[in-house]
Amino acid sequence: MNTSEIRSRIVAVLVGIALLVLVAILSGRWVGNALSFLFLFDLGVYGVAGFVLGFVWPKSGWRLGLYLSAGWLPMLLTGLFLTWEQPVTGRATLTSLLGYLPILIGACVGSGLGSLIQRASNKPSGNVSHS
């Protein structure tokens, strides 16, 4: 693993943590409790961030999205332990956790598309004439 790959992963985790705070603040103010808008908001924010990171570091591809959304895991585990004593049903817990799935999907799809476009734009054309 070279330093560029390490740097891309560190930047992705840091951007993901910054977005975690930003999304938590903005989604409460702008989106409210409308789950369909929250779904699209999370998907869009992490998709755009993943696209930019994938475009900058195309070698990492969609896997950069995993690092971008990695900041949510400690937050979810902390929330789970803080509510440990409260009675929750399995369906409510599953529904709550599935609400965070768009973050992972948006980040992975965005970084995959960004790296794909960057690699396609750097590919030499086969129709070059040498005269």
* Content-based structural category: mainly alpha
Summarize the main sheet. none
* Number of self-contained structural domains: 1
Output the helix-strand order.
Answer: HHHHHH
Number of helices, counting only DSSP H or I runs of 4 residues or more? 6
Oligomer: single chain
Q: Estimate the helix proportion, in percent.
A: over 70%
Distance between the termini: 40 Å
Radius of gyration: 18 Å
Globally, the shape reads: elongated
Number of strands: 0
What labels describe this entry?
131 residues; single chain; mainly alpha; 76% helix
Can you offer a commentary on this structure?
The protein is mainly α and 131 residues long. It has one domain. Helix content is 76%, strand content 0%. The chain is built from six helices and no strands. It has helices spanning 3-31, 35-56, 63-68, 72-82, 90-98, 101-122. It is elongated. The model has no long low-confidence stretch (mean pLDDT 81).
